[in-house]
Amino acid sequence: MTITPLEDEDLGSALAMLWQRHRQSNLDRISLLEATTANVLRATIDEHGIADGASAAHKLAGSLGTFGFDAGSRAALEAESLLREAVIDGRLLSEAVTALRSSVEEVSDNARPEPATAPSDPGSSPGPGNLIVSFDGDLISRFTVEAAVIGMATTSTSQMPIIDPQNASVPESIIIDDAGRSWSSRELFDCVAELSRTALVFVLTDREKVEDRVEFARAGVAGVFPRSQGSRQMVSFLVEALERRRSAESKILALNVDETLAEALSESIVGIDCRLDIRGDLSSFWQALEEQGADLVVVGFDGAEATGPELCRIVRAHPRWHRLPVVVVGDRKRLHLDEAMIAGADDYLSERLTPHELGVRLHSQVERGRLAHTRSDTDPLTGTENRTSTERSLDRLMRLTARHAHPFAIALIALDQADHIRQTEGDAVCDVILRRLGVRLLGKFRGEDVVGRWSHDGFAVGLYGASSDIAHERITEVLRGFATEEFPTTSGKLARYTFSAGVASSPADGSTLPSLERHGETSLRRARAAQNCVVSTHERPTGHPANVVDVVLVDDDDAVADVIEYALGLRHYEFLRFSDGAEAAKALGEGHVKARVVLLDVGLPSLDGFGVLQTLRSQGILDDTRVIMLTVRSSEAEMLRALGLGATEHITKPFSIPVLLGRLDQTLPRSNA
Asked: Which region, left, alpha or beta, applies to residue 437 given φ > 0 means left and ψ of -120 to 50 means alpha?
């Protein structure tokens, strides 16, 4: 299997973003080498200092080559070789380290990789997604990473884009950084005004004057952020704005409507993406509201079964619909207006309004209602429904189940060891994990299903028309996928986390929502005791075997490991990573982890790669596990030693990612035979 153009493009984008993440750590290694060189020239270096310098040069050789800094990689190899000599030539070492610094800074300054896809040329379309216009690499990196957590694609450029409205690949939003700009204030306002015609435009600025905000508002910006604003808050606001723009067709439900008003309503919604549903009696109106919902209710003041103000009171007294916008249409009598507004109407419109005026007022109420619904019913962290809204939605599905005699299942989900994660990694890391789990659940369950935040560490999912077995299967699919995701930790390493779930279904486990919740909580307690599994009411907990993977990567260089892990993810390989040789040898040797292929670096802490290989060989692990050695040094003696200890292949750093993937594509099928 060869690498595809799409994978090649994704790899290029990932390398650029990962370089931004690891750039500073590589520059720190160069600084350490420079200090080592100075001490060599002053004859004040000791063995410990030489060893540290050689180790830094060794890691730089592999890391820089992986990111495409070939000249820097060669200079680092030369520096390492000089530091391992019995007598170190300070002049040659100084030249090598100087060349190393120059090669990295020259590439960084003149063709600095961006943490997203390559920037567009001026005048060309930047492509779909969300575009960041900025010179600040750190800001771009932080925003890109925060957006990536919720699956939002971003690109970046330092040039003000020119958008062709006829091009279908224009970005949905454009975020313009006003700092370090190469344009004047007038040029900025003019560009924003032009771009706002085809995309949502947001501006990051340090301008505090209200006059500047007036100018931005006139230009049509969708949001103005201070540059000090956190990336998470910016992304949250951006998501909310995009959701409002992408909103599906609105539904207006009407009652007490005569022919004249019906005609005016029909004309009023032309061009505003609304669907009108007029009901002739109160019972039919309420059934439509319960089963299909609505974004706005329009009711005539006079009615045979209920007047407009009376229907307002019915809606305001209902726990599910009390926030629903209600507009009363009537004559111009002040008494009727007062009565409607006191009853809770959001607006009172004259039946003499033109269709255009009526449409503008109704559209405004629909938008305000959507925004209020989003803010009141959505959990701000995860984007799922909050607890109150989830309970209402589950109750609605339960009543539909009873009415149509369909099956219904509820799954209660909890992140495993959430309290421990908060104590060891902090609230921020735990929030990122919960947010990603929420996004994954929302991506899996749509339509009539309900996904909501149920507790501080978990969710509830309602599956309309699903039996216990179907619910179990669908939740297990999510569990398996989530278990492969990796999250940054405070130590700088990546970690994987799991969740447990309890499933209960109707009618087998009860015919009311409280009874299903109780059975679900019981199943969840049993699942959490085992962890990383889904348990139905009458089932023993059985966990998905998470210790069998395609690839185990053993490498202590975070920069190189990040690139390899991204490449493995492109091919959907299941993998684990260890950065300590002794830890990897123990996990593999004792059977805690079983791998089809081990990618093994030589220079490891605690136990080097040869020691790991020797351990695996002595314990019989190599009988059904293949080992590919990864190392900067590639002498014939070293290669023969690795092959003699049982390694299958030997790949020299820096290596080509497509070559590595090609080796894995060839090796994995054989090792699975």
From this structure: alpha
